[in-house]
Design goal:
Elements (H helix, E strand, L loop, with lengths): L6 E7 L1 E3 L2 E6 L3 H5 L6 E6 L2 E10 L2 E5 L2 H7 L6 E8 L7
Antiparallel strand pairs: 1-7, 2-3, 3-6, 4-5, 4-7, 5-6
Length: 94
């Protein structure tokens, strides 16, 4: 069984749909990290720190990239990137 610290590494193209910029997740988070209501992830995109919550559309998952992060990273849509993501170890709210 995989632990929550397992890192997924993959190549992706930064995509834009309307005003949203994102990378598609080429695996099922449910299969890798188990079923949960939300997937909070942390890692890097081209070795630049990134974190967020995976979004879902039908059966596909994606990581949205914010405008400030994009501006500071210098990464643009259409660019091919190396993504390294792990499930963020968040403690439930008490």
């Amino acid at each position: 069984m995989m632990s929550e610290t397992d890192q997924e590494i993959f190549e992706a193209t930064v995509q834009r749909e309307g005003r949203f910029t994102f990378v598609a997740i080429p695996f099922s988070p449910r299969d890798v990290w188990g079923a949960r209501p939300r997937y909070y992830v942390t890692g890097t995109i081209n070795d630049i720190p990134a974190r967020g919550t995976l979004g879902a559309f039908k059966q596909e998952y994606f990581l949205r990239l914010g405008a400030v992060w994009l501006q500071e990273s210098g990464i643009e849509y259409g660019e091919s990137v190396t993504v390294k993501l792990s499930l963020e170890n968040r403690k439930p709210a008490t």
